[in-house]
Amino acid sequence: xxxxxxxxxxxxxxxxxxxxxxxxxxxxxxxxxxxxxxxxxxxxxxxxxxxxxxxxxxxxxxxxxxxxxxxxxxxxxxxxxxxxxxxxxxxxxxxxxxxxxxxxxxxxxxxxxxxxxxxxxxxxxxxxxxxxxxxxxxxxxxxxxxxxxxxxxxxxxxxxxxxxxxxxxxxxxxxxxxxxxxxxxxxxxxxxxxxxxxxxxxxxxxxxxxxxxxxxxxxxxxxxxxxxxxxxxxxxxxxxxxxxxxxxxxxxxxxxxxxxxxxxxxxxxxxxxxxxxxxxxxxxxxxxxxxxxxxxxxxxxxxxxxxxxxxxxxxxxxxxxxxxxxxxxxxxxxxxxxxxxxxxxxxxxxxxxxxxxxxxxxxxxxxxxxxxxxxxxxxxxxxxxxxxxxxxxxxxxxxxx
Amino acid sequence: xxxxxxxxxxxxxxxxxxxxxxxxxxxxxxxxxxxxxxxxxxxxxxxxxxxxxxxxxxxxxxxxxxxxxxxxxxxxxxxxxxxxxxxxxxxxxxxxxxxxxxxxxxxxxxxxxxxxxxxxxxxxxxxxxxxxxxxxxxxxxxxxxxxxxxxxxxxxxxxxxxxxxxxxxxxxxxxxxxxxxxxxxxxxxxxxxxxxxxxxxxxxxxxxxxxxxxxxxxxxxxxxxxxxxxxxxxxxxxxxxxxxxxxxxxxxxxxxxxxxxxxxxxxxxxxxxxxxxxxxxxxxxxxxxxxxxxxxxxxxxxxxxxxxxxxxxxxxxxxxxxxxxxxxxxxxxxxxxxxxxxxxxxxxxxxxxxxxxxxxxxxxxxxxxxxxxxxxxxxxxxxxxxxxxxxxxxxxxxxxx
Lengths: 401, 401
Known about the structure:
2 copies of one chain form a homodimer. In chain A, helix 1 packs antiparallel against helix 2. The relative contact order of chain A is 0.10. Chain A contains 10 helices and 20 strands. Chain A is globular and about 70 Å long. Helix content of chain A is 24%, strand content 26%. With 401 residues, the first copy, chain A, is α+β, with helices and mostly antiparallel strands. Chains A and B meet through helix 1, helix 2, strand 5, strand 9 and strand 10 of A and helix 1, helix 2, strand 5, strand 9 and strand 10 of B. Strand 13 of chain A pairs antiparallel with strand 13 of chain B.
């Protein structure tokens, strides 16, 4: 058996490339990233011909980047050094706190993924390597708890004139209690995102599994639609085949998606055992998805009792012709007359959308419309949005309310 | 609105890296791969400091690779040249036939993914870029047809003492006909694979959607388990968190998974509307999954009426202690006395498992046990396994039989 097993291994390596060959045939077997016992992390890459190797990631102190539009902060960088085995290495000077981190290498100016790490996440058109510093209390790891189901499902949109895909999370036990009905959180992505953003970049599956298992959130269905009405599905998963992602899609913020949202709610209420009422529905979104959540909940005030705006893209929409954007304060007044159970606004102090959010809160304050406000550090980043979901989900659907 | 939209774009770029910045701020916007009207393909990479850039992919003529274990064929290579814009480029000399192709770049000896292409597939621990040359008849593209649902589901394995994940495809219309019951194909991956292999590398979802929409396959449920009983889920999706993939996992071919297989069948028959009988069950697998299919169907002769061995890893298992491997011919005899509806064997003429498969067919021939044999060109590669699934699925579950 052994020799044939070896032949199997060798053949697969011969057909899958050089990196695997090295591990078998005498080249150094690279482990990267390596989590050290003291919670520092070592990055390694085998790039013998390189003249300079840099790692850039969100575990390093941020650095300012000058652009024509102003100065922004970007993930920090560190330089790798060549060790005695001719491998390039860098170890973080300090232990890292439990968190999901992302990084990539820059080899002689070319941004590349870590060849030794298959764990990667795509954010719009950038693919980064990731790793988690876990601990027993973290919400992002897959812990040994009951797991919900994640399904990729297609619904028909009359508005788009096409079948469109969405992601549906059903909590652990859904199939075991056929008589039970569940509340639903609709969770919306940002510009350039799609129905894969929250389950992948957002760790929504793990966050919900862990919160529910700890009794910190109600068992709920989470629906993650694709907010780009001009596309049927994430790039590669729809009939536009292998189209690349884009930040600039038509009809993303012109009212079309918002107006068509009841199509999705009807589809969900028809195909899952939901509690199809306002008290059992929440809507939340990040950035563009916060903008969508604001306008959908305002347009359909009897649909959602819980609203979450995460770093919401709140800005003037003068000149955008859509019935959805009409009568901004009037529709908000109607919504707040219905006493929503929770209107939750969160943003980072460094977010470029901080001021527009402040102006929006001024409107709420002036009118005496109640909301909960959470301000964190940091900017317009996924680390904040994972945190916001982790804090928002426990507030939803309490039967004692 | 425009200026805030720009600020949104700029901020996201500042936080996601250099490649996006270039497209916005005057650097060349790279499109790669670019499918030309004559079906040639152009590859482009912006690597100003590089001294040599090579593309390697399965659309190029294969090349022999010498290894300590012998000579194997590997994907071909071509050298990119620097154009007037200082971009490295290569265009295929000939149009490409409709197919799913994979490739990567080698920049100064370092294997890297195409920074301009987010469409990538992981095969064990190697991530390759992919593209599809589509046509109206191809089975791998997402065509405008009704789509099934793909769910990631956890079941409890008493054998493993853990919850384990599997992928379940339910055909389009499953929710619309609540009284209808469906046959089930169990589809198994190879060594180093997992429950993501068939839906991703194997395009199983697209193949089934397209075959069913054309009336060429019966609507069926397809269950894609994880055949590595020592792991709960694909790397990154289980409690071993961000473990890297491995070809050498314990208990993959020692009978444990095969013996425990009825756990999975029971779980599926309990949670989906299956036709829970032999005539409505098929099992097939590639390489190690072919080995698993051979032994599971032999061990439980009343469970499956359709068996598919795709490039099956058929080899002597002397010395592996498991009841599953006992009485090889005796159990096969019992299985064939039950007249399986289809025993289907496929392999490529260049596959390193060609001879063991021939010896297995000799056993079947000697005993007069009927089977269907399909021989293709090529070796132990996903292109063949996608083809085999495309040819096997239409043969299953015909009600007229």
